[in-house]
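Hi R.,

As promised on Friday, here is the backbone we talked about, encoded as structure tokens. Could you run it through your design pipeline when you get a chance and send me back a sequence?
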């Protein structure tokens, strides 16, 4: 019997949001009438492509069970880990019995609530026939400097530099084995870097600049601005 390829989403949401400096993890701060993570998950659900969404949540998180979306039929709760990569691996393991190695997984930060269905479908359409997979990314508008101490020692060739966003889309089996091979390596700050360590070259797909990550306090107002002006 042939298995038709499915799409799964994995959402790491077990961080503490240190740089946000708030009274709770940033994914539970309010933005336009909902928490950040509710926006993120409702937008992933509304793309209508995922068989399920595995969300990695910290063991000491009192906020998650309070949200209606936590018991949505397409949401699976997994245990978070020490680093983001550990949380992603844990979420992948939580769907091991459901997913096939060839299925696609889109990993998306809980802290990126402005993700649009347009970007999700653009990523999928661009990579669905690809061998390895890839990520949404943005080119840099600013001139980039190589600095030592506080002195500039060079200017980087901007045409080779991209900023990695999420979702990042890879095959279930390859992503899981690449993350397992890289376990404990602090250089693994996104999924693509785990595949790069395997000698693979994930593709980049140009994303939208409104897909920001909430990192610092001023990002909440910016996210609200984008949400008010998005109509797709
Ligand atoms: N994340 C996770 N598990 C961790 C660390 C981070 O699931 N051990 C998640 C975060 O919840 C977030 C995403 O990974 O949705 C991106 O990480 P980041 O923006 O760095 O969030 P935090 O680690 O929470 O923030 P900070 O680095 O400022 O503490
Ligand atoms: Mg972090």
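Update: got your reply. Pasting your designed sequence below so it's all in one thread:
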């Amino acid at each position: 019997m042939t298995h038709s390829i499915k799409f799964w989403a994995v959402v790491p949401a077990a961080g503490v949001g240190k740089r946000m400096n708030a009274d709770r993890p940033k994914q539970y701060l309010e933005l336009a009438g909902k928490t950040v993570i509710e926006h993120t998950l409702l937008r992933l659900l509304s793309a209508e492509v995922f068989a399920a969404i595995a969300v990695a949540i910290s063991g000491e998180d009192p906020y998650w069970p309070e949200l209606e979306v936590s018991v949505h039929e397409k949401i699976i709760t997994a245990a978070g880990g020490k680093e983001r990569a550990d949380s992603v691996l844990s979420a992948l393991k939580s769907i091991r019995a459901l997913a096939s190695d060839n299925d696609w997984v889109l990993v998306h930060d809980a802290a990126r609530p402005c993700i649009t269905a347009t970007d999700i479908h653009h990523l999928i359409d661009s990579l669905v026939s690809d061998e390895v997979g890839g990520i949404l990314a943005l080119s840099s508008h600013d001139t980039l400097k190589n600095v030592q101490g506080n002195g500039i020692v060079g200017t980087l060739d901007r045409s080779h530099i991209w900023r990695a966003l999420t979702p990042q889309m890879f095959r279930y089996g390859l992503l899981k084995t690449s993350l397992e091979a890289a376990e404990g390596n602090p250089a693994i700050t996104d999924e693509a870097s785990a595949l790069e360590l395997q000698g693979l070259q994930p593709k980049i797909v140009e994303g939208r600049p409104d897909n920001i990550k909430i990192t610092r306090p001023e990002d909440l107002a910016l996210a609200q601005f984008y949400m008010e002006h998005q109509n797709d």
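One thing I noticed while checking it: The CA atoms of residues 81 and 87 lie 4 Å apart.

Thanks again,
M.
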